[in-house]
Amino acid sequence: MMHKIPLKISLFLMIFSLLSCQLFAKEYSVKNNRELSIVVKKLVAGDSVKIMPGEYQGGISLNQLKGTNDKPIRISGSGIDQTIFKNGKQAFHLVNCHYIILENFTVKNFSINGINADDGGSQENPSSGLRFENLSIREIGPKGNFDGLKLSGLHNFIVSNCSFAGWGGSAIDMVGCHSGSISNNRITGIDGFSQNTGIQIKGGTSSIQVFNNYFNKAGQRAINLGGSTGLKWFRPLGAKYEAKDIEVVGNTFEGGMAHIAFVTSQNANVHHNIFYKPEKWFFRILQETQDPSFIKSQKGQIRNNIFVFDNKARTFINIGANTLPQTFTFSSNLWEDIEGKRKPSLPVKEINGVYNKAVKVKQREDGTFEVDSKYSTYGPKK
């Protein structure tokens, strides 16, 4: 016969359990690569690591570390100008980790990836709750498919307040990631790096918000909404799209070959951005996969954006074969030709478009743009 535990004892046990978790959470301080490699093997929920100022070689592996939403594991540098990982293959590799925060350090001069995080091949138990904040990731590659931040099979993740400068493949590369946000980052191309894409979103990735980022000459495609992924790498397996339900809002794009490519993607929502003087195209609509079972690239919404262009933009939208450009919608965008009076050539008729107004786009010291207040319904919100 079971006996009920008295309420007072039950409450005492609950409080004791909570206090025990708080009391046993540990704070570590490390001052070299060896100490860091040892410490990360014994971290548990609620623990934190402070990485002292200095230079570190990287090659740090985090395997199946599990924080929780309430008690994440925090790995912090002393500041991006003080804690610097440099000159190796990759700084960190996170394998099937949960609720880990990496913050406040620099990663530079790595030949493979800056930081790599994946689900360890476990589609049933994807990595979740990872956060990458206030990082500087630069000079990765320099040429070839080598990424600043490589993310595979992540759920509920955040990339915020980071800067990326110089990479081979993508500044941020996502394969089969879901329910994430990428915000308040600076993504800048530099000479000597191949920089294929700024942010790449592919392999069945869905429900990602990309907002309030600044892209400056961020590669051939500042955002690649889709891609061409090997079938075995899709998450979920069997997905018939590269990217779905992606929101791109409040960003500023300057220069670069093309600002956004819709590649075997569907239901993208692109609104309240500034697109400033691309070298060739604003958008591309493409179908790069050769598998005929995949859904054709379709149903993008482009609204309430500001487009400023010169004579370099001769084709506004590049449309590839086997796509459905007629399913895209354009509405309430503002277009300004600063060297003439051209109207954009679009695949469908725009609703409530505004053409050739003096937008008075003013560039701030940080490179982002300020727009005349009378056009406040367009472009990024304050």
The structure class reads mainly beta
Strand content: 35-45%
Q: What proportion of the residues is helical, as a percent range? A: under 10%
Task: Tell me about the largest β-sheet.
Answer: 23 strands, parallel
Summarize model confidence as the mean pLDDT. 93
Count of runs of 4 or more consecutive helical residues: 2
Query: How big is the Rg?
Result: 23 Å
Low-confidence stretches: none
Strands, count = 37
Distance N terminus to C terminus?
64 Å
Give a description of the structure.
There is one protein chain. The chain is mainly β and 382 residues long. The protein has a domain at 111-375. Helix content is 7%, strand content 41%. The protein has two helices and 37 strands. The strands form four sheets. It has a 23-stranded parallel β-sheet that branches. A ten-stranded parallel β-sheet has the order 4-7-9-12-16-19-22-25-29-32. Strands 10-13 form a two-stranded parallel ribbon. A hairpin with a 5-residue loop joins β36 and β37 (369-370). The model has no long low-confidence stretch (mean pLDDT 93).
Question: What brief labels describe this structure?
Answer:
single chain, 382 residues, mainly beta, 10-stranded parallel sheet, 2 helices, 37 strands
Please give the structural blueprint.
Elements: H1 7-24, E1 27-30, H2 33-39, E2 48-51, E3 54-56, E4 60-63, E5 73-77, E6 83-88, E7 92-95, E8 100-110, E9 115-118, E10 127-128, E11 131-138, E12 149-152, E13 154-155, E14 158-160, E15 163-165, E16 170-175, E17 178-183, E18 186-188, E19 197-202, E20 205-211, E21 214-216, E22 221-226, E23 243-249, E24 252-254, E25 258-263, E26 265-266, E27 269-271, E28 274-276, E29 281-286, E30 301-303, E31 306-309, E32 317-319, E33 329-331, E34 334-337, E35 354-355, E36 362-363, E37 369-370
Parallel strand pairs: 1-2, 2-5, 3-6, 4-7, 5-8, 6-8, 7-9, 8-11, 9-12, 10-13, 11-14, 11-15, 12-16, 14-17, 15-18, 16-19, 17-20, 18-21, 19-22, 20-23, 21-24, 22-25, 23-26, 23-27, 24-28, 25-29, 27-30, 28-31, 29-32, 30-33, 31-34, 34-35
Antiparallel strand pairs: 36-37
